[in-house]
Amino acid sequence: MLKSTLVAAAFSVALIVPAYAENAKCDEATMTMMTTEIEALTDAGKKEMAMAEMQKAKDMMTANDMDGCGTQLDAAAKVYK
Predict the structure, then answer these.
(1) What is the mean pLDDT of each run of 10 residues along the chain (81 residues)?
(2) Domain spans of the chain?
(3) pTM
(4) How far apart are CA 77 and CA 12, in angstroms?
(5) Are the beta carbons of 61 and 69 closer than 8 angstroms?
(6) Which of 28, 33, 48, 68 fits a disulfide with 60 by CB distance 3.0 to 4.6 angstroms?
(7) Integer-rounded Cα radius of gyration of the chain
(8) Burial degree of 2 (CB within 10 A; 0-12, 13-18, 19+)
């Protein structure tokens, strides 16, 4: 009983940890690719929200905050995916 509980807990932790480590790579290639995908959106509301997140990511990239930039890129991707 204890063994199965520990195994279940280990699997739960293994599945949760990667979900928190999904920051997109903050570089010019990623910025360009995502901007192209966002510009192709037909939903004006989603497009505006995603571009606002992209601007935040660019600002953070300029400030050399790569973790923050990756977080904002993830936020932009969630808007259009």
Answers:
(1) 44 41 84 95 95 96 96 92 79
(2) 24-80
(3) 0.70
(4) 25
(5) yes
(6) 68
(7) 17
(8) exposed
